[in-house]
Amino acid sequence: MLDAGIYLAPSQFEAAFMSVAHTPKDIDRTISVAQAAFKNL
User: Fold this and answer.
1) What is the pTM of this model?
2) Fewest Cβ atoms nearer than 10 Å: which of 1, 6, 17, 30?
3) Mean pLDDT score of the chain
4) How far apart, in whole angstroms, are the C-alpha atoms of residue 36 and residue 11?
5) What is the pLDDT of residue 36?
6) CA dist., res. 26 & res. 32, Å (int)
7) What is residue 17's DSSP assignment?
C-alpha cells in the first residue's frame, strides 16, 4: 500500500481515521489499493 501512496499507521494499536478531508474518490482508491495488496499476499 505504501508503494501506491497509501500511508497506514505504523502500529497495530493505532487506528486509521477518516475525516471530512477525505473525498469519496480517496476512499474508493484506498479500497482498490487494499484489494490489490491482499491479492499479492
Assistant:
1) 0.75
2) 17
3) 90
4) 21
5) 96
6) 10
7) -
Work out the percent of the chain whose per-residue pLDDT is above 90: 66
If you search the block for the grid coordinates 487494499, which residue do you land on?
34
Q: Which domain holds residue 27?
A: 2-11+19-39
Domain count, the chain: 1
> For residue 37, what are the contacts with CB-CB under 8 A and spacing of at least 6?
1, 4
Q: Is the dihedral of CA 18, 26, 38, 5 positive or negative?
A: negative
Q: Is residue 13 packed enough to be buried (19+ CB in 10 Å), middle (13-18) or exposed (0-12)?
A: exposed
Looking up cell 490489490 gives 36
DSSP label of 10: S
pLDDT, tens digit, 9 for 90 and up, residues 1-16: 999 999 888 887 877 7
